[in-house]
């Protein structure tokens, strides 16, 4: 499954949920939709989905509860628990690829957080945020320096969108309008 298609798949699953007979969808549908919301880091929709899943389906489906446990750890920003839950749980084929992609997505978000929020941070903190014990390898990969128990991340440069001045925009608009009038 391509992760680029998840927006479309989420939309289809939402439609299927709305059209489900008796207003109750299958646990597999709920599980896949919940996993997609987590992958998209759409924690509000994930929480609302969890609240509208009937209690008997939550009680009967262990995987659904495990997916929500990952969601709760993300909501509470407990990345260590999030990585542990995702890697230690045996996922069904229904959600396995999404949960693997979720791990990479969370790790990438945390990498960006660390590189943009810290000038120096402890190895333990980086280890917990990135879910890895090999902080030195991650630091080398991203050009960070490690001295003793401290990591000095390098701030990622974000390409700035090219902006134009108001006068330049007005000049372009005027030129465009005069071309249209001719």
UniProtKB/TrEMBL annotation:
Keywords: Cytoplasm, Nucleus, Signalosome. It is found in: Cytoplasm; Nucleus. GO terms for biological process: COP9 signalosome assembly; protein deneddylation. InterPro entries: COP9_CSN8, CSN8_PSD8_EIF3K, WH_DNA-bd_sf. GO terms for cellular component: COP9 signalosome; cytoplasm. Gene3D superfamilies: 1.25.40.990. Pfam families: CSN8_PSD8_EIF3K (PF10075). The keyword Cytoplasm applies. Coiled coil: none annotated. Residues 26-152 form the CSN8/PSMD8/EIF3K domain. It comes from the Eukaryota. This is CSN8/PSMD8/EIF3K domain-containing protein.
């Amino acid at each position: 499954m391509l992760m680029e298609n998840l927006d479309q798949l989420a939309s289809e699953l939402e439609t299927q949920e709305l059209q489900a007979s008796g207003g109750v969808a299958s646990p597999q549908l709920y599980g896949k939709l919940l996993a997609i919301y987590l992958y998209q880091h759409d924690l509000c929709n994930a929480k609302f989905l969890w609240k509208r899943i009937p209690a008997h389906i939550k009680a009967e489906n262990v995987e659904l509860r495990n997916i929500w446990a990952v969601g709760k750890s993300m909501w509470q920003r407990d990345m260590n628990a999030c990585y542990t839950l995702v890697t230690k749980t045996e996922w069904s084929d229904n959600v396995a690829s999404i949960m693997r992609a979720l791990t990479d997505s969370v790790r990438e978000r945390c990498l960006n957080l660390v590189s943009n929020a810290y000038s120096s941070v402890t190895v333990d903190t980086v280890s917990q945020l990135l879910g890895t014990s090999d902080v030195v390898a991650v630091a080398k990969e991203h050009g960070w320096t490690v001295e003793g128990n401290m990591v000095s991340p390098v701030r990622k440069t974000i390409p700035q969108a090219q902006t134009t001045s108001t006068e330049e925009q007005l000049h372009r608009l005027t030129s465009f309008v005069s071309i249209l009038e001719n």
